[in-house]
Design goal:
alpha/beta, 27 strands, globular
Length: 718
């Protein structure tokens, strides 16, 4: 009997003998997503952060909410249009979800605006940063604003009329607009739309003050409609369905299909109309009827909308109002090493970003580009970013005559255009570029370097939980592993052959690969922990993920908890698993870490009867990741690196500063600290600074045991 047949037979026996799990065991995905946004907003409301960091969280909250409507709410609309009226796994019908979403979003946006207007703005003024309404400008400042309008703003404006001779203008996704009412003559009222140009700063400097661009435009509409009376003008904003991806597995050209769908994104169905609180009902009706939406889709806000633009304010040079900077460490084996690859020959090198410098990865590629013994480099790129030294290093390697193959995933949501541009740039440099696979996204983060050495060819592999993106590497926590392990190198070669050629390979030596086998291997790891619990009573699992929504994996965790396995989940965002339910999940605890850095690393720890195993992966526990994306799971083999990851997980489980504990009703509460507050991010920074000062090899620093009962103390690690 094959391994697959053994797995299938055992699973069938277990499922047949196991009692059915209760209904109501999942949270609703949309409501869980809103709860994550609530936690992000909570950071903006917290005075523990420096002032501009609070501004940054306000902007992140707005950006997250935009994506929630563009992706999640749009999917609910599609379900309604498809006639799906029954409840989903979370127990709510699509219509019920929309009814629950609106008051929650209105509650959070109202809190956001109170925070911005009543707390942040006054404190900014106290620190010499004056963000104000046009109405608050002095006469001299208004004169300056008029000059700025005439010289810098007026030339790029295009008023669009709406009347029998002019159709209702297209309102693009996330654009900010002014609804303008004009009297052409007695009893001759007209309507016009003015788009606020995105090519200009949203916050315009006016004699030392920062003024919202739309307010400057609204104050000077008389110059755009000469000879007419401007009666009123109100800002509004539209959010459209932007979840467009090629659906046909037989598209003749993936690049053309993605480019076509990107054009469709601006014309997606409207799912939210945001209007100023003061907009009269008759103007709202004009917009609503022409945008073909219901009153349910209209959201009123007080004062400024589209606060994702606060990223501009955070960019100002005021380090005294931001988190203090820190210098990332470099693994001791790589610090000053003339040959970074040689440092990986004797074992695995673990890097935890941003506490370990991501520039070590960039330098690794640069060193490979200049090394005459390096023959080939292969890499996957998912979210590349605006400015990429990684791409520059790859093009330099090609110029040095290396064999270069790069898979650029052009279906990475909201990064499609950037990735297409980078792919074309790489192609123009002579790099062999693969655009991804039809029907699958390539989400694994993988770098393979092949070098000719005295004893033959050696493969060096770097795997990561995060993207090869220098900008996000400073803000996201991710784990990377550099290794010269022969079996990992062979798996990397086989996986790249699968990505670039034709292969039906399902089994690898070390890797767990989605969609081929990763789901099955995760289920087996959970079942193995159940067996250890039955034999020794020591079953324990710690899983750190961004998202947990896969129902089969959630049910497997429920089964493990029922068997007595102690389970700790560290889930940054959406989690459908309900912890703390008697008889089902009282042995499961779920926490979310939201703080200075965006938690992005994905780690799995299994006690395994004392022979602890830890894995890093590019995959979240979602059906999309496990069934429709190419993902990689890899074990951390070296004891020192396992020990370091164990201690990192223990730090997150000990956190009382950034942690939120998920309750059985779906709400989150802050943990109570028995002693001094513990901040995992601050602790990790301190460890990186200590390592930088002493140049200790990675893995030599330790965390004193302080985690919950399911997290073995560091000295108990195998």
């Amino acid at each position: 009997m094959t391994k697959q047949e053994l797995h299938t037979d055992r699973e069938a026996v277990e499922n047949a003998s196991a009692p059915p799990l209760p209904a109501g065991r999942y949270f609703n995905r949309s409501l869980s997503s809103i709860e994550f946004d609530r936690r992000v907003l909570g950071e903006a409301l917290s005075a523990r952060h420096p002032l501009l960091e609070r501004v940054r969280f306000l902007g992140i909250f707005s950006s997250n909410l935009d994506r929630f409507f563009m992706v999640r709410v749009s999917a609910i609309h599609e379900q309604i249009e498809a006639g799906l009226v029954g409840p989903g796994p979370g127990g709510l019908t699509p219509a019920e979800q929309l009814a629950r979403i609106k008051p929650l979003v209105e509650e959070l946006t109202a809190a956001q605006h109170r925070c911005w207007c009543d707390e942040i703005l006054p404190q900014l003024r106290e620190h010499g940063i004056r963000v104000c309404d046009y109405a608050d400008l002095t006469a001299d400042e208004r004169a300056t604003a008029r000059r700025i309008f005439n010289d810098e703003i007026f030339p790029v404006l295009t008023p669009l009329a709406f009347d029998p001779g002019h159709p209702f203008p297209h309102i693009s996704n996330l654009s900010l607009n002014l609804a303008v009412v004009i009297n052409k003559g007695p009893g001759d009222e007209r309507f016009a739309r003015m788009k606020v140009p995105e090519v200009l700063p949203r916050l315009m400097p006016v004699d030392g003050a920062l003024v919202w661009l739309e307010q400057i435009i609204a104050a000077h509409l008389d110059t755009l409609f000469p000879g007419m009376q401007v009666v009123e003008a109100y800002p509004f904003r539209v959010t459209r369905d932007a979840d467009v991806e090629p659906e046909d597995d037989k598209v003749p050209d993936l690049l053309l299909a993605v480019e076509r769908d990107l054009r469709r994104r601006q014309f997606g169905q409207v799912v939210r109309l945001t209007v100023d609180q003061s907009m009269p009902p008759r103007i709202v009706e004009i917009l609503r009827e022409n945008l073909e939406i219901t009153p349910r889709d209209v959201y009123r806000v007080k004062r400024t909308m589209g606060l994702a633009a606060l990223a501009e304010l955070y960019a100002i040079d005021r380090p005294d109002l931001k988190d203090p900077p820190f210098v990332p460490s470099v693994p001791g084996e790589l610090a000053g090493a003339p040959d970074p690859l040689a440092a990986a020959q004797t074992g695995n090198l673990l890097m935890h970003h941003p506490f370990d410098s991501f520039l070590a990865v960039v330098d690794l590629i640069r060193a490979a580009a200049e090394d005459p013994q390096v023959l080939a480099i292969k890499q996957t790129l998912y979210r590349i970013g605006h400015d990429s030294p990684i791409v520059d290093a790859l093009m330099e390697a090609r110029a040095q005559g290396k064999q270069l193959t790069v898979l650029v995933e052009i279906k990475a949501r909201f990064d499609e255009e950037h990735n297409i541009e980078w792919a074309e740039k790489l192609e123009n440099a002579g790099v062999h570029v693969v655009y991804g696979l039809v029907g699958l996204k390539t989400h694994c983060k993988l770098l393979l370097i092949v070098r000719k050495e005295r004893d033959g060819l050696r493969r060096y592999v770097h795997l990561s939980t995060g993207n090869y993106n220098v900008a996000t590497a400073h803000q996201y926590t991710d784990v990377g592993l550099l290794t010269a392990d022969p079996e990992i190198g062979a798996d990397a070669s086989d996986l790249f052959n699968y990505l670039t050629g034709y292969s039906a390979q399902e089994h690898f030596r070390v890797f767990g690969v989605a969609p081929a086998s990763l789901r099955r291997e995760l289920l087996d790891l959970i079942r193995r922990e159940i067996e250890w619990q039955r034999k020794t009573g020591t079953g324990a699992i710690v899983i750190k993920m961004n998202t947990v929504t896969d129902l089969e994996l959630i049910d497997a965790l429920y089964r493990a908890a029922q068997a007595g396995v102690q389970i700790e989940l560290i889930v940054r965002g959406v989690c459908l698993l309900r912890p703390g339910l008697p008889g089902l999940s009282e042995n499961i605890r779920v926490r979310s870490i939201v703080g200075r850095f965006l938690e992005h690393s994905r780690l799995l720890q299994f006690h395994n009867g004392g022979a602890e195993e830890i894995y890093l992966t590019s995959a979240d526990l979602t059906a999309t990741n496990l069934d429709r994306q190419v993902e990689v799971l890899v074990p951390v083999l070296r004891p020192a690196e396992r020990r370091r990851l164990h201690d990192i997980l223990a730090a997150y489980l000990r956190d009382t500063a950034n942690a939120h504990l998920l309750q059985p009703d779906g709400s989150y509460t802050r943990p109570t600290a028995d002693g001094p507050e513990f901040d995992a991010h601050a602790w990790l920074i301190a460890q990186a600074e200590a390592q930088l000062a002493t140049r200790l090899p990675s893995g030599d620093w330790r965390l004193e045991p302080a985690g919950p009962r399911s997290a073995p103390a560091p000295e108990q690690t195998a």
